[in-house]
Amino acid sequence: MTNREKFLEIYNACITREGADKLLEYIECKTDFFTAPASTRFHGAYEGGLLEHSLNVYECLCDFVKRPRFSEKYGFTFSEESLAIAALLHDLCKTNFYKTEMRNVKRNGVWESVPYYTIEDNLPYGHGEKSVYIISGFMKLTRDEAFAIRYHMGFSGPEDANQVGRALEMFPLAFALCVADMEASYYMEGTPSK
Question: pTM above the 0.85 mark?
């Protein structure tokens, strides 16, 4: 099964609220979600990296919320729909965001032109908040989902640390998504240690 097929299977099985079909149509027809990289040079900096990252975050998030310490502390579980929305769509802001340019690189003493990714942000609305904005144009998010997507970068974003800490404390799904995003980025997708 391809990553695209996995994504569509999870999305269609788990995300059923009003507008989900229109959002999926938008993703498939109006964005480069399935071919975009996840970054310019870090995790997932290759064609299809964003899709792979989203699936990895989904796997990590589903595992994390089942951990006894987490579930015992909060005394509840999240719906499959909320987990799928938060994980699969948290980086929707990265669609139609990267473009490919060429640069010269010397390999074995010979100069050659190679592709690389650059950023072309045509909707400069931040990171997590841009994903919330895009999704909200098609379907309603719960407060937990919106805050999870908005703060999935945790303390690595430019926001005030007190604001981030408060959001992660108030919204357990935000904390869980942040951990899952970092686990996927650094342990599943990061550069292997030498």
Answer: yes
pLDDT of residue 74: 67
Helix axes 20-30, 3-14, angle to 10 degrees: 160
Phi, psi of 38 (to 5 degrees): -90, -15
* pLDDT single digits (tens) 95-125: 999 898 889 988 898 999 988 888 899 988 8
